[in-house]
């Protein structure tokens, strides 16, 4: 038989929801397009020049008609609004237990790193049935991460983190595309997502060797860039300790005012690259900027390390 699929595989938990909404909207559009075309055709034929029909006394008011063309579109658009809002929230709110994978786009490839430390280029391996959250940024221009089989797509921007999540529901290999024109070899910025059985996936991770985790690599960088010299209880510089800071509100000196900012990925990234922008209340702005000295993948590792410190918030002195 012919193999001419109109839709890519439905390989994530949300794929069928996206398709159902799409088909509903397509159906509404087709119905009204056909209805309008049919009406035009009938009227053109019926009232064509030279045809003898009653053209006298056109009705000037028809309340039932006006009510119909207001109420039906109103109901239809409200259904579309509520339905797509529901799909939107499902697509953009990652469950809290999602495993976080880092993604860096650059001309012209994708670099990905798993929390366990294993990294990949233009390939992503994930276990079936587990929610995955991608934390994405770009090293140069705007890219866009697109996996049609999962029905997900998100711009990847330099200087900012965007996220995307999915739960693969079907074992297989799927296309990964960059879908934002990003220069000469944009068309080659493609890859694959391989969805595996959990046991197989664990084997795949283990096959990467028992290397350091992403957070452990971050700790090594933290020492290498002399962050530790100031941030682990220096005698010379008064710098805040970073244990437990991740995810918490931090007091920022803003002129004479103090405002609170949540220590999320964005905040930590900016603290490293633009330390003068948000200075922690009670501290001197002595931290040097690391702009241009730490690559995007390394920044993600350092953030993973600082985040891991939040987990073991025991106040242990290192
Ligand atoms: C010369 C000492 C020094 C070095 C080196 C240094 N920092 Fe800092 N850092 C500070 C000081 C002082 C502050 C508080 C004032 C401010 O916000 O700028 C700070 C603030 C921060 C904050 C915000 C902390 C909070 O409680 O909100 C983060 C995150 C941070 N540094 C990470 C790093 C990382 C990562 C490195 C290494 C790449 C590093 N720092 C290197 C002195 C330093
Ligand atoms: Cu690209």
TrEMBL record:
Where's the Cytochrome c domain?
A: 213-310
What is its subcellular localisation?
Cell membrane; Membrane
What's the domain of life for this entry?
Bacteria
Any keyword Translocase? yes
Q: For this protein, what is the EC number?
A: 7.1.1.9
Q: List residues traversing the bilayer.
A: 20-44, 64-83
Reported cofactor(s): Cu cation
Residue ranges of every copy of the Cytochrome oxidase subunit II copper A binding domain listed in the record: 96-207
Q: Name one GO molecular function term.
A: copper ion binding
Specify where it is mainly localized: membrane
Q: List the GO biological process terms.
A: ATP synthesis coupled electron transport
Q: What reaction gets catalysed by this protein? A: 4 Fe(II)-[cytochrome c] + O2 + 8 H(+)(in) = 4 Fe(III)-[cytochrome c] + 2 H2O + 4 H(+)(out)
Which of UniProt's keywords are assigned here? Copper, Electron transport, Heme, Iron, Membrane, Metal-binding, Oxidoreductase, Plasmid, Respiratory chain, Translocase, Transmembrane, Transmembrane helix, Transport
One Gene Ontology cellular component: plasma membrane
- A Pfam family that this protein carries is COX2_TM
Known InterPro entries for this protein? CcO_II, CcO_II-like_C, Copper_CuA, Cupredoxin, Cyt_c-like_dom, Cyt_c-like_dom_sf, Cyt_c_oxidase_su2, Cyt_c_oxidase_su2_TM_dom
Q: How does it sit in the membrane?
A: Multi-pass membrane protein
Entries under NCBIfam families matching the protein: CoxB
Return the similarity comment.
Answer: Belongs to the cytochrome c oxidase subunit 2 family.
Function, as annotated, reads:
Subunits I and II form the functional core of the enzyme complex. Electrons originating in cytochrome c are transferred via heme a and Cu(A) to the binuclear center formed by heme a3 and Cu(B).
By what name is this protein known? Cytochrome c oxidase subunit 2
Organism of origin is Aquisphaera giovannonii
């Amino acid at each position: 038989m012919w193999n001419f699929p109109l839709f890519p595989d439905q390989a994530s938990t949300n794929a069928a929801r996206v398709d159902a909404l799409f088909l509903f909207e397509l159906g509404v559009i087709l119905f009204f397009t056909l209805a309008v075309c049919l009406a035009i055709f009938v009227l053109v034929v019926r009232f064509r020049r030279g045809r003898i029909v009653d053209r006298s006394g056109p009705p000037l008011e028809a309340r039932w008609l006006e009510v119909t063309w207001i109420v039906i579109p109103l109901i239809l658009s409200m259904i579309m609004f509520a339905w797509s809002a529901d799909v939107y929230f499902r697509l953009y709110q990652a469950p809290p237990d999602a495993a976080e994978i880092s993604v860096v786009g650059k001309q012209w490839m994708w670099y990905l790193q798993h929390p366990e430390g294993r990294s990949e280029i233009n390939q992503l391996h994930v276990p079936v049935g587990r929610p995955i959250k991608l934390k994405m940024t770009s090293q140069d221009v705007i890219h866009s991460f697109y996996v049609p089989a999962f029905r997900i797509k998100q711009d990847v921007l330099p200087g900012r983190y965007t996220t995307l999540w999915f739960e693969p529901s079907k074992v297989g290999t799927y296309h990964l595309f960059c879908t934002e024109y990003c220069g000469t070899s944009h068309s080659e910025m493609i890859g694959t997502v391989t969805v595996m059985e959990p046991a197989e996936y664990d084997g795949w991770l283990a096959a990467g060797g028992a290397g350091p985790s992403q957070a452990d690599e971050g700790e090594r960088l933290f020492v290498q860039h002399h962050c530790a010299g100031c941030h682990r209880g220096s005698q010379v510089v008064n710098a805040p300790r970073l244990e437990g800071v991740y995810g918490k509100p931090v007091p920022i000196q803003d002129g004479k005012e103090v405002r609170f900012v949540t220590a999320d990925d964005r905040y930590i990234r900016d603290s490293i690259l633009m330390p003068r922008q948000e200075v922690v209340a009670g501290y001197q702005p002595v931290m040097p900027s690391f702009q241009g000295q730490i690559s995007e993948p390394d920044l993600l590792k350092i953030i993973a390390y600082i985040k891991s410190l939040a987990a073991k918030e025991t106040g242990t002195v290192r």
